[in-house]
């Protein structure tokens, strides 16, 4: 963990006990989020992105087990803290914006009630001070007429306004890190652009760090400084965003970028990645992307490659990329 790092995840492993056996959801995952940085984790559904995020807050289901690893936040290993110590961190130092704002709010309470509850857990404010704080929060995320809108119910908010209210709740106790799990999935492109601009402002004006979990490469390109690409529970490439899009090194990263629709190219059909993601109950002992890779050779069957540096700031888990063949 460097001096610039806010949070450092080191060789994290997360498994789930199922009736069919042990499901290996996250395998030896390592990355660092710096202060004031937007860091993205991108990959297909089921790649382990959300499980990694939930592990940071330790809100995984009872069937889960963190088999190995460290999560260092401001130098403290979150995995060694007591439940009481973690409750003091959740919502105060680390907040989370969940994928579906519709299901994140209780429909029978006003927005003010629900943000106020988050505030009351960590701050001892009298009613007048709390109301003033909630109004300020809603104004800071761009909700118009916050003095009036705070007393509305969730069904009176559009999808974009709900996501802004979720952001206000996440900011209610001035956290250092916000984890945003697919924050724009259910929103139209116009509202997505507004949420991206909101996140940029949070980083610039408040110095908040954001860990963005998404399958959307476009969102990564718009918002993030650095990114890790996940596949089948492994991180297969880590780089700054410019280098990743300009010169991706892992075949999976290349395939993801090639599958993005392009208006400037004359293509008859969309590009897809052949094959399927491996069953997490039966992860192969060789490179997990080998069955779908157009560049695989016999060397790829020699075990899962480690994530190694191939140039300044870029790490890749690919034998051929590490040898300079790709």
Plain-language structure description:
- This protein has helices spanning 49-57, 83-89, 101-104, 111-122, 127-140, 146-149, 159-171, 189-206, 217-223, 241-246, 251-258, 319-323, and strands at residues 5-18, 21-34, 38-42, 64-73, 76-77, 94-97, 177-181, 209-214, 226-231, 234-240, 308-311, 314-316.
- Helix 8 links the parallel strand 7 (177-181) and strand 8 (209-214).
- Helix 4 packs across helix 5 (127-140).
- The chain has 326 residues and is an alpha/beta fold.
- The longest helix has 18 residues, at 189-206.
- The chain has two domains: 5-93 and 175-323, Rossmann fold (3-Layer(aba) Sandwich); 104-174, no CATH class.
What share of the residues does DSSP label as strand, in percent?
15-25%
Element order: H for helix, E for strand? EEEHEEHEHHHHHEHEHEEHHEEH
CATH class of the largest domain: Alpha Beta
Number of helices: 12
What Rg is obtained from the alpha carbons, in whole angstroms?
A: 21 Å
Keywords:
four-stranded antiparallel β-sheet; 326 residues; Rossmann fold; eight-stranded mixed β-sheet
What is the compact description of this entry?
With 326 residues, the chain is an alpha/beta fold. It has helices at residues 49-57, 83-89, 101-104, 111-122, 127-140, 146-149, 159-171, 189-206, 217-223, 241-246, 251-258, 319-323; strands spanning 5-18, 21-34, 38-42, 64-73, 76-77, 94-97, 177-181, 209-214, 226-231, 234-240, 308-311, 314-316. The longest helix is centred in the middle third of the chain and has 18 residues, at 189-206.
